[in-house]
Amino acid sequence: MVERNGPSLGGGLCNKPSEPLCCVSVNKIFDSVRDKDCLEDLRVYLCDIAQEVVDRATAIRTLAIDVIDTAIHVEPVPFNKGYFQVTIRFYFCITLECCVCGGRTQIIKGLAAFDKKCILFGSEKNVSVFTSDPNNDGFCPCPRELKCEPQSTLPSVVVEVAPPIGLDTRIVERCHCCCNCCMTVDAIPDRVRDNFDGNFIDDVGTNVVLVTLGIFSVVRMERPVQLLIPACHYCIPEKDSTPCESGDPCSVFGKMPFPLSEFFPAAESPAANERGERGCCKDNRENRDNR
Fold this sequence. Notes:
Blueprint: E1 2-4, E2 21-44, H1 48-56, E3 59-76, E4 83-99, E5 105-121, E6 156-161, E7 165-173, H2 190-193, E8 207-230, H3 249-254, H4 260-263, H5 270-275, H6 280-290
Antiparallel strand pairs: 1-2, 2-8, 3-4, 4-5, 6-8, 7-8
């Protein structure tokens, strides 16, 4: 961070007649979107052992859904300078509970995928950027592999996704499957395959598992820029780390607050509080006060 003396900011953030200006290098968000997507009838890709369980299952339900990986592709939009099309492939690990013969249940895992597209503004930048490497900054540095290719000037994309919500899970016959498929088994990356036991199979078995998911996501497009901002002073920690006292466990327990919310659940729903509705206890108390 390089400090520069700048003009007075009229009190500014630090309540001082003049504040120094600092030039910082940050990732500026040029554009962002937020979406609520309902992904209907996604096919769940299964390994050989899990497929045998599904073929014998009489009922199925989803226990957990995790986003284990994404594949993000950015390309410029033709005839629209500064705009880029972003293609995001989400990989979901689906944990399923199957009801098999004899009233027994069996837990299996499968893979689902979904492609999401959006167009964002990321501006333009046509310069080559080189940075030093502290790990390779000696007197005789190791030679790097050089390629006679232009350096990428694409912006970076950051994707944030909340834990998916399982809306529906069902088993259908393979011949009657009308699922939402965006890939084949051969297109599954190795880093995704490593999260599952066994080999993924396709066109094998009599049943197919379809799931419907709901996801909330935020996609933003960033570029590194230099900004001039007012600065008060360095951010120095003011709190000391307190070691855990293991000598007297009862004293540690005595400092814990009593969990009232666990014994007395909320009488009103959050939606009722937002609408301004009042409970019976509050109404009775106010009536007594008015008397």
